[in-house]
Amino acid sequence: MTESITIRRPDDWHLHLRDGAMLKAVLPETARHFGRAIIMPNLVPPVVTGALAAAYRDRILAALPEGMHFEPLMTLYLTEDTDSSDLAAAHASGLVKAVKLYPAGATTNSASGVRDFNKVRPVLEKMAEIGLPLCVHGEVTDAEIDIFDREAVFIDRVLDPIRKATPGLRVVMEHITTRDGVQYVAANDTDLGATITAHHLIINRNHILVGGIKPHYYCLPVAKREEHRLELLKAATSGDPRYFLGTDSAPHTDDNKEMACGCAGCFTATNTMSLVAEMFDREGAMDKLEGFVSLNGPAFYGLPVNEGTITLAKGGPVEYPDKIETEDGPVRVFDPGFPLHWRVV
Ligand code: NCD
Ligand code: ZN
After folding, report:
1. Which residues have a Cβ under 8 Å from the Cβ of 145 and sit 6 or more positions away?
2. Region label for 128, one of left (φ > 0), alpha (ψ between -120 and 50) or beta (otherwise)
3. Could you read off the pLDDT of 70-98 as tens digits, one per residue?
4. Which of 21, 77, 133, 229 would bridge with 327, disulfide CB 3.0–4.6 Å?
5. By the 8 A CB rule, do 9 and 309 touch?
6. Triad 101, 39, 293: Cα angle to 5°
7. Closest ligand, as measured to the CA of 220
């Protein structure tokens, strides 16, 4: 008998869809399995106002192939000039579901991010008042801080002070990569949640650097030591409702990854559900899968769970394409380096 599991349709609580030709190519990869996704606003120029978010949402829906159903949950990119009343109106209309904080210079297209956190204090207070969550790219960008320490230092120097200064602010620590991230979630209340990517459940920093440099495993935050990966796996499979899937699927063309200064980002939209199911199965935690991918995220955001379901079945290795073709060039699909046995049927 085939082993199978039916769960509520999952959501992705951190996704990069880009725009134009790339959007058109990557959107079906997500919409095939996922009902909704929190859409990252780091376009060039970034999505900084309600009007820009509404226009981006329209472009996403226009790019959705006939017959597919997908709801983009829009975000605003927080800058030192963000207007509280525009943000509150975009939230009240139901358009915007979160605000994204990038420390300036932290990652791809983050030049407009925040340098002086005092400047955004009034906006954060407004968000706490209206219940609009803040999604945080939790890395400091100071040149003297080692890249492998940037998450831990961010928690101490930025995140904890922001949360203490803004009681009631709901915060998602995005794509946590360290034991420090897990411990910070564990030590706090339900106003704090965290997303975990599929690839950070699978790779550690050796995968990027041992035996030749592997640009397709380079993303930000960069994967850390194995002991950190094991903590993430434990957190994701724990059943704790504060953890949920945010793939951070971040497509770049192969040309832009395989160069002297390659872009950060792993493209996992195509095979996420197989990746996550494989890792949960190995942990003997298939009973926790639905919580992580389909239930905990909506609960944190105060949204209903999806009506539909998906069924995953276990069998012989699943074949995925090495890459997807886009008008901008091929985009390599994340390769876990081992066979995957669960497929969405
Ligand atoms: C993201 C991208 O390419 O937009 N890259 C990444 O490595 N995750 C930006 C981000 O979320 O950090
Ligand atoms: Zn991201």
Report:
1. 153
2. alpha
3. 999 999 999 999 999 999 999 999 999 99
4. 21
5. yes
6. 100
7. 1
Sequence spans of domains, the chain:
4-344
Ligand 1: which of 77, 136, 220 to mutate, most ligand atoms within 8 Å of CB?
220
The two structure tokens encoding residue 285:
């935690």
Q: Is the pLDDT of residue 42 over 90?
A: yes
Whole-number Å distance, alpha carbon 313 to ligand 1 midpoint, is: 31
281 counts as catalytic:
no
Atom in ligand 1 nearest the alpha carbon of residue 264: 7
Task: Report the distance separating Cα 339 and Cα 317, nearest Å.
Answer: 6
Query: What is the per-residue burial (b if ≥16 Cβ within 10 Å, else e) of 329-342?
Result: eebbbbebeeebbb
Catalytic residue among 81, 191, 248, 335: 248
The predicted structure's pLDDT at residue 105? 84
Query: Once rounded to an integer, what is the mean pLDDT over residues 271-294?
Result: 98
Which residues have CB less than 5 Å away from ligand 2 (the ion)?
Answer: 248
Return the ligand 1 atom nearest residue 251 CA. 3
Contacts of 210 (CB under 8 A, 6+ apart): none
Q: For 18, phi and psi rounded to 5 degrees? A: 60, -150
* Class for the domain spanning 4-344: alpha beta
Atom of ligand 1 nearest to the CA of 16: 4
Backbone angles phi, psi at 121, to 5 degrees: -55, -50
Instruction: Decide: 121 and 84 in contact? Cβ < 8 Å.
Output: no
For residue 5, report the distance from its CA to the centre of ligand 1, in Å.
31
Interhelix angle 84-92/50-63, rounded to 10 degrees, is 40
